């Protein structure tokens, strides 16, 4: 560990500077990982291209399988956590970044060949790499700032959340700079537009490579990554408590909801530029909310920590319950957004994204508070995996 040049360099700096540098590297990687949330923006373009050039039977409904397979994200987090415990963080994170970027690059060809190959590269490979890199880089950033777990995890998660604000306009401008309107069936027929779709994956792969390699330079654990105090706390706590009840866990599995939100908007809004703007603005608010929730968790969580582990759990449950309740109301009222036009839809989307941000800051903080820092990547991966299982059942 101490022979790592990055560690040697960081240890010469102040604790604040170390935290800033490592967190910035993690955020940079998460900016690339977060393009998962741009699937809703890319969906009509990908469906239109494949329908015209690859397979005439392709529909948007069929392509929804792609984010479902990208949902191997939680399984990949468990794999990433296990890999991180067997090797150093940079190598483990590199493996995840490599799978994700390679999957994106290969999609340049597979989208022109068949749906099955497209599913493997942009679904399974992308999701596997994304999940592995996500949990490892998050864990590393937390290791350098253990007194501010909620805030740091919120900042890193904000990089993941704000990614769509950065990449959605880029995708739209690359593919549809003239703002062509889709047909009534929701597809684009202009060959000038559809012919640009494959090249976007090639461009994105290049951008991902640059961002991830730069971020990986500072992805490393501090020399004192193992904390006997935290391990002792993990042993002392009553670990058979549930961190979150099934109802909240089910609501927390919101990865596919963002795709549904955008797809729903396309049913009554024919302005592609506006949809890109709306999704970018909502993602920005989601990112800011993640930092806010993380700051709140740190401020209140530490004050009650000395009282009882059950009070800590209660605090997280209150936060999650409040956010989940609001998100549920917004979800139920989703059909009403069409009556208010595109700006009503915009307000609804912003509110939904802010509510969903709570889980990203609260989950990993609750995991560490309950079980300590040892194996936190693996524990967090199992927690997120549980939300997928509950949703499936």
Automatic annotation (TrEMBL):
<keyword id="KW-1133">Transmembrane helix</keyword>
<keyword id="KW-0813">Transport</keyword>
<dbReference type="InterPro" id="IPR011701">
    <property type="entry name" value="MFS"/>
</dbReference>
<feature type="transmembrane region" description="Helical">
    <location>
        <begin position="345"/>
        <end position="368"/>
    </location>
</feature>
<dbReference type="GO" id="GO:0022857">
    <property type="term" value="F:transmembrane transporter activity"/>
</dbReference>
<keyword id="KW-0812">Transmembrane</keyword>
<dbReference type="InterPro" id="IPR036259">
    <property type="entry name" value="MFS_trans_sf"/>
</dbReference>
<feature type="transmembrane region" description="Helical">
    <location>
        <begin position="308"/>
        <end position="333"/>
    </location>
</feature>
<dbReference type="Pfam" id="PF07690">
    <property type="entry name" value="MFS_1"/>
</dbReference>
<feature type="transmembrane region" description="Helical">
    <location>
        <begin position="89"/>
        <end position="111"/>
    </location>
</feature>
<feature type="transmembrane region" description="Helical">
    <location>
        <begin position="151"/>
        <end position="175"/>
    </location>
</feature>
<dbReference type="GO" id="GO:0016020">
    <property type="term" value="C:membrane"/>
</dbReference>
<keyword id="KW-0472">Membrane</keyword>
<feature type="transmembrane region" description="Helical">
    <location>
        <begin position="63"/>
        <end position="83"/>
    </location>
</feature>
<feature type="transmembrane region" description="Helical">
    <location>
        <begin position="118"/>
        <end position="145"/>
    </location>
</feature>
<protein>
    <submittedName>
        <fullName>MFS domain-containing protein</fullName>
    </submittedName>
</protein>
<feature type="transmembrane region" description="Helical">
    <location>
        <begin position="20"/>
        <end position="43"/>
    </location>
</feature>
<dbReference type="InterPro" id="IPR052983">
    <property type="entry name" value="MFS_Riboflavin_Transporter"/>
</dbReference>
<feature type="transmembrane region" description="Helical">
    <location>
        <begin position="200"/>
        <end position="219"/>
    </location>
</feature>
């Amino acid at each position: 560990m101490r022979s790592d040049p990055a560690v040697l360099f960081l240890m010469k700096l102040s604790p604040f500077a170390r935290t800033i540098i490592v967190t910035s590297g993690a955020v940079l990687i998460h900016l690339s990982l977060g393009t998962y949330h741009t699937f809703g923006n890319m969906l009509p373009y990908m469906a239109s291209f494949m329908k015209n050039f690859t397979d005439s039977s392709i529909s948007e409904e069929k392509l929804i399988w792609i984010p479902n397979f990208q949902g191997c994200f939680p399984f990949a987090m468990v794999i990433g956590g296990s890999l991180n415990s067997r090797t150093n963080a940079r190598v483990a994170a590199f493996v995840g970044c490599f799978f994700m970027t390679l999957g994106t690059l290969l999609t340049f060809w597979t989208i022109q060949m068949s749906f099955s190959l497209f599913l493997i590269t942009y679904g399974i490979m992308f999701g596997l790499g994304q999940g592995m890199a996500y949990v490892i880089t998050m864990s590393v950033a937390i290791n350098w700032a253990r007194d501010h777990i909620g805030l740091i995890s919120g900042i890193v998660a904000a990089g993941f959340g704000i990614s769509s604000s950065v990449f959605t306009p880029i995708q739209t401008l690359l593919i549809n700079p003239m703002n062509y309107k889709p047909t009534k069936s929701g597809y684009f027929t202009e060959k000038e537009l559809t012919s640009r779709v494959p090249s976007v994956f090639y461009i994105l792969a290049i951008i991902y490579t640059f961002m991830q390699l730069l971020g990986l330079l500072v992805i490393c654990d501090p020399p004192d990554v193992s904390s006997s105090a935290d391990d002792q706390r993990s042993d002392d706590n009553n670990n058979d408590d549930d961190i979150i009840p099934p109802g909240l866990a089910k609501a927390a599995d919101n990865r596919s909801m963002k795709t549904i939100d955008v797809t729903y908007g396309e049913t009554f809004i024919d302005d592609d530029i506006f949809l890109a703007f709306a999704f970018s603005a909502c993602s920005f608010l989601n990112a800011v909310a993640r930092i806010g929730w993380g700051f709140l968790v740190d401020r209140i969580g530490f004050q009650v920590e000395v009282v009882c582990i059950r009070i800590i759990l209660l605090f997280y449950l209150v936060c999650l319950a409040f956010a989940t309740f609001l998100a549920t109301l917004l979800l139920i009222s989703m059909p009403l957004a069409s009556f208010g036009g595109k700006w009503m839809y915009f307000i609804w989307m912003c509110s939904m994204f802010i509510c969903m941000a709570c889980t990203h800051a609260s989950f990993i903080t609750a995991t560490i508070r309950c079980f300590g820092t040892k194996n936190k990547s693996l524990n967090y991966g199992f927690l997120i995996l549980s939300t997928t299982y509950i949703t499936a059942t």
